[in-house]
Amino acid sequence: xxxxxxxxxxxxxxxxxxxxxxxxxxxxxxxxxxxxxxxxxxxxxxxxxxxxxxxxxxxxxxxxxxxxxxxxxxxxxxxxxxxxxxxxxxxxxxxxxxxxxxxxxxxxxxxxxxxxxxxxxxxxxxxxxxxxxxxxxxxxxxxxxxxxxxxxxxxxxxxxxxxxxxxxxxxxxxxxxxxxxxxxxxxxxx
Length: 190
Known about the structure:
- The chain is an all-alpha fold.
- It contains eleven helices and no strands.
- The longest helix has 19 residues.
């Protein structure tokens, strides 16, 4: 006998949306991004930037097993040190660790926190991922307006998947159709 499942409209939309959303770049790809120099900022002193970059690099090597045994726990510790300096790439990487539960307990709320910090500093991958969290209501309250805001910011920085997600949002929710037509260079402050 075949079982029937009752899905609410929200659950069905979230499931469909989840199939369309892909988390942004891996740690390795994030390190080789073409705008890497523009993303190298820390919100503290210039000397902290050098320290934070080194800590983030060590964390990346630990996460990838590049020259050292792969150790997500150690990677998360190094990303945390660099993130505390306000280093945007480390904030993004720490968000990835929390989202996937690598070296830390899986925690979508903490992932959203760290991605929000990195997104505010212009990390397109963090903006894109944060938009996904708002779209799905993972770690943050579901909010299509905030999802579209972060996807627009990521699209303005060249993230093509964010542009695709804006079009998907407009199809699923007609009230957001104008969002898909927004000039990619327009960035709205949160």
